[in-house]
Each structure stands twice: as structure tokens, then as C-alpha cells.
Amino acid sequence: MNGEAAGRFVVRFATRIAAQRGAEAVKLAGLAIRSVALGIVVTAMTQSALGDIGLAVVGVPAAGIITAVMLILCLAQIGPLLPLLGGVAWLFWHGSHVVSIMLLVWSVMIAMLDNFLRPVLIKRGVNLSMLLILSGVLGGMFAFGIVGLFIGPVILAVTSTILNAWINEQPPLLQVEAMSHDETAKSASARDLAEAPRRQT
């Protein structure tokens, strides 16, 4: 079974369970996974490119190799700070104290970039609040590791959408009227049963 066939099977299965709401939940989960993957890859490439620019400007040797290591670490959600700190230590060891401090500041700024760029990229792919996305990404990562980056936003996105749809859904008018008629009939029956002994006496 290829990916498209598996996707169609999941949509049909969800539709059988929860009708239109189940199909919408599956589509929302797919959008959330795609958005998280896009956010991780683009953020990792941006951080690696900025780190490479900083290393090249200050003249750290083997900047290309360090950039490749940064990209791998960013994709693994470890961050680019460790390779950049190696460049800072090399500059400081060779007496370039001012340049090493500048690279250190640049490195900290790059390391903090994923806290802002990744949620923005994820929000562009799925229409959810920034707080919900950030909570899903961070909570999922702390709870499940790297896989939690995908699991957390999906769980929160699907749960929030289904809960909002359930809260905002108005019961049909006929169903409300039927319920009121049933309640009226039940109350009348109970009243008749209570008055029956009095009539007999």
C-alpha cells in the first residue's frame, strides 16, 4: 500500500467513525505534520546559513564542514550553538578576543532564532493560534523527544478543532422540539400518577 492509498484509507476510516468531522480531523492532522516538517527544515537551513556567514566573516577555518555539522544538529533539534562555540574558542585561543566576542553574540542570536521562526512557519501552514502551536511543539518535544515535535501539534490541533466544532454546534430545531414534547409528556404522566390515588379516595 503506497502513501496515497494509505491516506485515502485513513480518511475513509475516519469518515465512518465521525462522518465529516472525522475527515476534517485527518486533513488537519496532515496539514499540521506538513507544517511542522516545513518549519523544522527551513529553520535549520536558515540557522546554518547564518552561522556559515558568521564563520566566514571572522575567518574561522573549515567553515563548510562546521556548517554541515550545524545543519545536522539543527535537524536533530540540538541546535547550532555547539559548533559555533567551537569557532568562538578557536578565535579566543588565537588571540582574537574582540572577534570571538562578536561571534559569540552572533551565535546566541542564531540559537534563539528557532524559538521565533519555527512557530511562524508552522502557523503559515495550519490556521491555529501561535500559543497552541508553540505549546504543542515544546510540550511534544519534552514529552516524546524529536517525534514529539510532530505528535504534540497534531494532538492539540485536532483536539482543539473537534472541541470547538462540538461547542459551536447547535442542535437541530426539530430535535429540541421533540425533547421539549417528551419532557412535557413525562411531566404530565408523572402528575397523573400522583393524582390517581387522590381520585380513588
UniProtKB/TrEMBL annotation:
<dbReference type="InterPro" id="IPR002549">
    <property type="entry name" value="AI-2E-like"/>
</dbReference>
<keyword id="KW-1133">Transmembrane helix</keyword>
<feature type="transmembrane region" description="Helical">
    <location>
        <begin position="125"/>
        <end position="144"/>
    </location>
</feature>
<keyword id="KW-0812">Transmembrane</keyword>
<keyword id="KW-1003">Cell membrane</keyword>
<keyword id="KW-0472">Membrane</keyword>
<feature type="transmembrane region" description="Helical">
    <location>
        <begin position="53"/>
        <end position="78"/>
    </location>
</feature>
<protein>
    <submittedName>
        <fullName>WGS project CAFE00000000 data, contig bkir_c29</fullName>
    </submittedName>
</protein>
<dbReference type="GO" id="GO:0005886">
    <property type="term" value="C:plasma membrane"/>
</dbReference>
<feature type="transmembrane region" description="Helical">
    <location>
        <begin position="28"/>
        <end position="46"/>
    </location>
</feature>
<feature type="transmembrane region" description="Helical">
    <location>
        <begin position="90"/>
        <end position="113"/>
    </location>
</feature>
<dbReference type="Pfam" id="PF01594">
    <property type="entry name" value="AI-2E_transport"/>
</dbReference>
<comment type="similarity">
    <text>Belongs to the autoinducer-2 exporter (AI-2E) (TC 2.A.86) family.</text>
</comment>
<keyword id="KW-0813">Transport</keyword>
